[in-house]
Design brief:
245 residues; Rossmann fold; 38% helix
C-alpha cells in the first residue's frame, strides 16, 4: 500500500503512524495532513500516513492487514518508539490494530491517540440514533451503508471490526477525544470505561459543543489546537523524553 512520510529525517526520534478517517470508504483529506504536520512539528517525531485499502474494492481485513504490515516493516527497520493515531474510522482501525498486536504477542505502540473513534460499526446502539439530530456530520444511514461495505459477510461485532466488543486488557496508554455533539459519544464513553476497567492507562478529552472529529481541524479551530497540545503532552509522557521534543 502507499504510505507518505512527513519529516522522515526525524524517524530516529520515533514515528507517529496516522490512520485516516473516512468511514472506511474515502480519504485521506486535507485536515488529516494538517493534523499530522502539526504533530510532527510539535513532537519532533516523523509522521507516516498509511493510505490503507478502502471498501468496497478492498474491504475488511485489507485495511487492518495494511496497517499491520506497515508496523511490521517499521519494527523490522528498528524504528522506535511508535505512536499510532487515527480519527473516526481510522481511530477504530487503530484500536483494532492494537488489539491484534496484543493478541499476536507483538510489540505495542508506546501510545495511541484516538480522535472520535468509530469503535462500534454494528449501528445497533439506539443511543447513537437518538443523538444523530445534533451531529452535523454523521447519520445512522450513512454509517450503516459504509459499515456494510467494509465488513461484508464478517460479523460486525468482531473486535477487529468493532473494538468496543474486545478485551481491552494490555492495550497501550490511550487518549480518546470526542465532541459532545457527535453520535459516537455513547460508544466512545463505553470504550474508555472498558479500558479503565481493564487497567489500561486511558485519558478522555471532551470538547463541549464539539462536532465529530473536530480535534483534527488544528489549522482553523482554536479548540482543536488546545486539544492537540494535550495530545502532544500525552505523547511526551509515554515516549522517552530524550526522543520527543
Amino acid at each position: 500500500m502507499r504510505c507518505v512520510w512527513l519529516a522522515r529525517e526525524q524517524a530516529s526520534a520515533g514515528v507517529v503512524v496516522y490512520v485516516h478517517g473516512g468511514a472506511y470508504v474515502t480519504g485521506p483529506a486535507k485536515v488529516h495532513w494538517q493534523w499530522l504536520d502539526a504533530t510532527v512539528r510539535a513532537t519532533g517525531m516523523a509522521g507516516l500516513l498509511v493510505d490503507y485499502g478502502l471498501a468496497p474494492q478492498r474491504p475488511y481485513p485489507h485495511g487492518l492487514d495494511d496497517v499491520m504490515a506497515v508496523l511490521a516493516s517499521l519494527r523490522g527497520d528498528g524504528v522506535a518508539p511508535l505512536v499510532i493515531a487515527g480519527d473516526s474510522a481510522g481511530g477504530g482501525l487503530a484500536a483494532a490494530v492494537c488489539l491484534r498486536l496484543r493478541d499476536e504477542g507483538l510489540p505495542l505502540p508506546s501510545a495511541a491517540l484516538l480522535i472520535s473513534p468509530w469503535v462500534d460499526i454494528t449501528m445497533t446502539d439506539p443511543r447513537g440514533a437518538e443523538l444523530q439530530k445534533r451531529d452535523c456530520m454523521l447519520s445512522v444511514r450513512m454509517l450503516d451503508m459504509a459499515a456494510a461495505s467494509y465488513a461484508g459477510e464478517h460479523d460486525r461485532k468482531h473486535p477487529y471490526l468493532s473494538p468496543l466488543f474486545g478485551d481491552m486488557a494490555g492495550l497501550p496508554p490511550t487518549l480518546v477525544h470526542m465532541g459532545t455533539r457527535e453520535m459516537f459519544v455513547p460508544e466512545d464513553s463505553d470504550f474508555v470505561r472498558r479500558c479503565r476497567d481493564a487497567g489500561v492507562v486511558v485519558s478522555l478529552i471532551e470538547t463541549p459543543g464539539g462536532c465529530h472529529a473536530s480535534a483534527v481541524a488544528v489549522a482553523w479551530l482554536p479548540e482543536a489546537r488546545a486539544v492537540h497540545e494535550q495530545m502532544v503532552e500525552f505523547v511526551r509522557r509515554h515516549v522517552a523524553p530524550r526522543q520527543v521534543g
